[in-house]
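Field reference: sequence -> structure
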Amino acid sequence: MCGVLRRKLEESPKSEERNPKRSKKVEPMKTASRADKQQALVKTLKRVRQCLTDGCSNHLCGRDFCRTSKNFKYANVKDLDAKQISTLALKLATLQLKNPLLCEDPPFFLVNWDNEKTSLLPAEHELEELKLLYLDVGQGLDSNFLLKDQDVSEEHPSIDFNALASLHSRSDEIPEVRTAFMEVFDSSVKKLAQGDTISDIMRLRRVLIFCEHPLLFSEDLEYFENMSTLLQAFTNMNDDMKKVLVRWLCTYPAEKLQTVVMQLQQFLTITFFQTHEEELEMEDPDIEQIEEFCPTLIHNVIGAVVFLDAIYKANLSYHGAENGFWEERRPPVELVEFYNTAINDTFNMKYIVADLKEWQGDKPSLYQYHWIYDAGTKSKALEIFARSAMRRQLFQSFFVMDSPYFVVKVRRNNIIEDTLQVLQQHDAQSFWKPMKVKFIGEQGIDEGGVKKEFFQILVRELFDEKYGMFTYNKETDIFWFNSQTFEDAQEFELIGMILGLAIYNNIILDIRFPNLIFKKLLSKSLTFEDFRDFDPALAKGFEQLLSFEGDVENTFCRSFTHTYNFFGEQKVVELKEGGEKIPVTAENRKEYVELYVNYYMNESIKTQYKTLHDGFHVVAGSRVREIFRWDELQLLICGSDKVDFEALQSSARYMDGFDKDSPTIKFFWEIVHNLDVDNKRKLLSFCTGSDRIPIRGLKDLVLTISKNGDDEKHLPTSHTCYNHLLLPEYKNKDVMQQRLTTAIQNAEGFGLR
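Structure field:
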């Protein structure tokens, strides 16, 4: 009775109301009919019989009843008649009805590769297994070339590079092995690169193992196409796999990272020249042709660039996020190795404009991966951004009745005060207008040369020790902040703004700051090595203190203080609270050195440096922080220190009757090559308005030399705005040397002193 009632309740519509959360009626499970079972058995029987007699097309098949599989157990099937084969197939098919085993499903046949099999190559059996390792998308690699005691995880790829190198070396030595590799690489590489998005770590591991084969990095075009295809895989990864890739690369041995960077740079260079030759037939293509070339180039190299980007990130974080104070941990690959010489040597303004156009259109570009640009190319990109900003400001000025230029009028003998007053009268937007300088009482019109001279004189005045803002260390030839200066903080802000204005106006300055200032400008952490570079004598003293094995406290008699002379009076600063009463001992001497160095490099100059820092970034903007490293920023501001007049001669041009073989020109170069460095810089200043050297050296400074009559009594003159030297046709070398020396020793402003 209860059972009947229960069934009626379950069949009643009200039963659904008892469970309001049920979204739909649960259908009872259907029972397969006898006909369905027979149809499934026939289908499985045909498949199994086909596998027994002919096999499948999957060489990684793990089925023991499939003739293709290396696990095949029924080799005697060839001795059976058709009826016996059908009987065997029926038996195997019946076992599979509940759980069909398909040839395309795992578990696959596993090749267990080891060094013994490598040594047996090119034996036929090993060659076949070698192909199975890399076949399809290389699933055979998943269980091979693993490190002992290291599982594959999101933190580590567990790749035995030594075992791989041993195997790959055989392809260099044995043609049959090379052929075996190439037979499977073509199809496997394409499937890896062009298949579904790489979203699992085992597939990523296969890509990295494929990248290890030296044939793929060969200059032989037969193999080069496979490398190009494989590298596309790095553009076919989801964001999680890109992060995993960076973490994996951090586990690579340093020499392995260096090798991969070298190989990828080789690929970039070859591809760049190939694409350049195919797309640009003219020696000096116009901007329209270059704009068509750049997207094609990016498409051809984007895989390599994305892989290099992952290596670059791994390289920076290889030793952790920050350097320790006592040890500056250098990345395994020098950052300059990420520059591509072919691209940087070719990319003039037109190429960079075309590349930036792609970047501004949210399309892949080289600027997006700006580590590939060297400091010279980055400075050109920055100049393009600056010119664009100047054009915008120039355009807006016409609508607000404002001056289209940032005009600086100063007196030569009062240049600091006048410049400070001009800067205080303008906002940051004005600094982005084209800059014009006028020396009051002089006739020069600024076409670039006056501006260069203005910066040169201003910096010289600001860093003059008589002004009291900086102290000079003769041993290291650097200036440092005078922590006891009476000058207002505005003067330090002026220096920061001048640094920014110089960058914005493509002017190189004679700034002799220690390296650590450029690190501080980009908010990089400082180390003891930075202090050693800044003050080697004091650093050596600290090292003696740290290595002393005797009684530190009574030998050195120091406390946690810093003492300095303030106009004849000894001032004491505690390095920590109560520091005057804390003696330096063997136990705390390391802490003492850290606090002392921090006070010297940071705390003692906090006010002066902060105003300089703020002034710099007000003018320079965020772009400088985004694309320049500290050493590149130093080059951008200070230029190169290589006074190479051979390079200057190689890039010189001649006009108005002179050529490189003219006797006067030969005299000129013989004379200037024998000048000392100081006079060479004076000659540069005479010809260009500045003694500073471009980022890439004097090969980037094109000096034009023109004939200016034949009166040997006349001195040489110049148009500094155009780097143009006007040279009379001297016929006597001694006369030329006398006239040239007189000119360069006495020239400042417009006219001789």
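Note: The first strand starts at residue 406 and ends at 410.
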